[in-house]
Design a protein that fits this description.
- 1% of the residues are buried.
- The protein has three helices and four strands; from the N terminus they run ββββααα.
- β1 (10-16) and β2 form a beta hairpin.
- The radius of gyration is 23 Å and the shape is elongated.
- The model has no long low-confidence stretch (mean pLDDT 80).
- The chain is an alpha+beta fold.
Length: 85
């Protein structure tokens, strides 16, 4: 690797507030806020809104869309003639 062109990679804690989970990993991201980790060391912490612990795709708690209800509501609102075009 060429010197002085790559960003510095350091240990960083990513904290998912929605799932109340934290991950210690390496990142080039930096933060002025810090947190004391389980190993006793202090690391920069970055709060995220969604991670693999809270995203429905990874957790398997995805919402089922009611497509039949949407079609019926459309037909009630606009009638069957709108669907034929």
């Amino acid at each position: 690797m060429k010197p002085r062109i790559h960003p510095v990679s350091r240990p960083v804690v990513f904290r998912d507030r929605a799932a109340d989970v934290a991950f210690l990993t390496r990142s080039t991201a930096d933060s002025s806020r810090t947190v004391q980790w389980e190993d006793g060391n202090t690391y920069p912490v970055i709060d995220v809104e969604v991670s693999s612990a809270s995203h429905p795709f990874y957790t398997g708690r995805s919402r089922v869309m009611d497509s039949a209800g949407r079609v019926e509501r459309f037909e009630r609102r606009y009638g069957r003639t709108a669907a034929r075009g």
